[in-house]
Design brief:
about 120 residues; alpha+beta; four-stranded antiparallel sheet; three-stranded antiparallel sheet; 1 helix; about 45% strand
């Protein structure tokens, strides 16, 4: 009987430690910093853009607008448009090289600090 008590205590400690680790991991995921990953593809004079943004939603429905946002699209240093979806197209670019900048902002245009820049080359026809 005496040998079982230390084993029982060790098992209880392991169980408690596992619960604490699970709660900590859940809190870390809840407080995860937003991030931005971008994939783009050139098709003629159109750029297809797909964004994976964590921690921010583009839906305006729901009780809280705390982490809602949009993407401001800049082409060659000029604001082209605002995207309200994570996938969109940049159309009508002239042949040649262009610098694209994507900036994630809230609904009042306050930056979240998430930007991506990339270069594209539109072939001549």
């Amino acid at each position: 009987m005496m040998k079982r008590i230390p084993i029982l205590i060790v098992l209880i400690n392991l169980l408690v430690m596992t619960c604490v680790i699970d709660v900590t991991n859940a809190e870390e995921k809840k407080n995860e910093f937003p991030s931005l990953f971008v994939h783009h593809e050139t098709r003629g004079s159109t750029i297809l853009v797909e964004c994976l943004v964590t921690g921010i939603t583009f839906r305006e429905s729901g009780p809280s607008k705390k982490n809602h946002g949009k993407i401001i699209v800049w082409v060659d240093g000029l604001k082209k448009f605002e995207a309200t979806k994570a996938a969109f197209m940049i159309k009508g670019l002239s042949p040649g090289g262009h610098k694209i900048k994507l900036e994630v902002v809230d609904l009042h245009n306050v930056p979240y600090g998430l930007t991506k820049e990339f270069l594209v080359n539109i072939p001549s026809k």
